[in-house]
Design brief:
single chain; alpha/beta; Nucleoside Triphosphate Pyrophosphohydrolase; TIM Barrel; 4-stranded mixed sheet; about 25% strand; globular
C-alpha cells in the first residue's frame, strides 16, 4: 500500500542586485538535496501569507529586508521521498548586505551562468523562467517587408528582447521571408523569437519556441514542443489558463486587461479580475491589452511578470 506523501509548501526568493545578478546559496551537506545550490527561501508557516514568509525567510537566511518583490510563478515537483510546491518571487529591491547568516556559502551569479551550478530538480524550472525578458512584443501592422524590418529593428533598439511573430493575413511566402528577417534581427540583438504553429520556419532557424492562440490551445492534448523550447499561449479566462497548464506552457499572455481600440466591443478584465486569474497560474503571466510600459508597477502588483503589447512596443511607438 503506497504511503500518502504530504506536499511541502515553500516560498522562494530570487534576489537580484543592481547589476542584475542573482543570489544563490549552497545547501548544507546533511539536509535533503544537500551540497546543491538553490534560490533562498523556506517553508511557509501556519497563518503566514507567502509574502510574510518571504520576508521572514530572507531576513533569517540572508540578513536582508525585502522592500519590493513580484511574482514569478509556481513549481510543483515530486521527489522520491517528498513533494514540494514552490511559490517563487523576484526580489527587485532590498536593504542590507546579503550574507549567509546560517554559515551557508552564498554567491552572486549572472543569469546566463546559473546552468553551470548544480541545483535541486525543483529549482530548474525557475532558471528557465528567469531567462524570460519582461517585455513581450507582438508584431503589428506594416506597409511592406522593408517597413516590417525597420519597425522590428526600432523596437529592439529600444530594449525589446522577446518577440511573438504575428503575421495574420500575410501571404505564406512573405511570412517565410519575414520570419527569416526577424530571426536574423533576434540573433543580432540576442532576443527570443516565437513562431505560430501555422508559420513554416526554415529548418536552419533555431527559434526560441512556439506561441499558441487561445483557439490553437485546444488543438493539442500535450505539449507541442520540447522542454528545451519555450511555449507561450494567449488566454482570456480560467478554462484557457487550465488548458495552458495542461500543455505545460512556460508563460501566458492574459488579456484584455484594459479597453483596446483593436477590440472595442470586448469587455476588459480590469486589474482586479486580472489578479484573480493570474494568481491561479503556475507560470509567468504577461498583462496584455491596453497596457504599456507605464503600467509595469501596477501589473506586477496584480501578479504579472511582465507586459505584452502590439502598438505600445511596435517600432517608434515604444514607450
Amino acid at each position: 500500500m503506497s504511503k500518502l506523501v504530504q506536499t511541502l509548501h515553500v516560498v522562494v526568493g530570487v534576489v537580484r542586485n543592481r547589476q542584475g545578478q542573482i543570489l544563490i546559496a549552497r545547501r548544507p551537506a546533511h539536509v535533503h538535496q544537500g551540497d546543491l545550490w538553490e534560490f533562498p527561501g523556506g517553508k511557509i508557516e501556519p497563518g503566514e501569507t507567502p509574502g510574510q514568509a518571504l520576508r521572514r525567510e530572507l531576513h533569517e537566511e540572508l540578513g536582508i529586508t525585502v522592500d519590493a518583490f513580484y511574482r514569478l510563478g509556481k513549481v510543483h515537483h515530486d521527489y522520491a521521498d517528498k513533494s514540494v510546491l514552490l511559490d517563487v518571487y523576484v526580489i527587485e529591491a532590498f536593504s542590507g548586505e546579503a550574507h549567509g547568516r546560517e554559515a551557508q556559502p552564498v554567491q552572486w551569479v549572472d543569469v546566463h551562468q546559473l546552468r553551470q551550478y548544480a541545483f535541486p530538480e525543483a529549482n530548474l524550472p525557475i532558471i528557465k523562467m528567469l531567462k524570460l525578458p519582461d517585455l513581450c512584443l507582438i508584431t503589428g501592422k506594416f506597409s511592406s517587408p522593408a517597413d516590417f524590418v525597420t519597425k522590428l529593428k526600432a523596437s529592439m533598439a529600444r530594449g525589446v528582447r522577446l518577440v511573438q511573430l504575428r503575421l495574420k493575413g500575410v501571404d505564406k511566402q512573405i511570412q517565410a521571408e519575414l520570419a527569416r528577417q526577424a530571426f536574423k534581427l533576434c540573433q543580432q540583438y540576442d532576443a527570443l523569437l516565437l513562431l505560430n504553429p501555422a508559420q513554416e520556419a526554415d529548418p536552419e532557424m533555431d527559434v526560441a519556441g512556439m506561441h499558441l492562440t487561445s483557439q490553437q490551445l485546444f488543438d493539442f492534448t500535450q505539449r507541442p514542443v520540447s522542454q528545451d523550447k519555450l511555449l507561450s499561449a494567449s488566454v482570456h479566462d480560467s478554462s484557457e489558463l487550465q488548458q495552458a497548464k495542461k500543455l505545460q506552457a512556460d508563460f501566458v499572455l492574459l488579456s484584455p486587461v484594459l479597453p483596446t481600440s483593436s477590440h472595442p466591443g470586448v469587455t476588459p478584465l480590469g486589474w482586479e479580475t486580472f489578479k484573480q486569474l493570474a494568481d491561479t497560474s503556475d507560470c509567468p503571466v504577461f498583462a496584455l491589452g491596453g497596457v504599456d510600459v507605464s503600467h509595469r508597477v501596477q501589473a506586477r502588483a496584480c501578479g504579472a511578470y511582465g507586459i505584452a503589447a502590439i502598438s505600445a512596443l511596435w517600432g517608434e511607438q515604444v514607450k
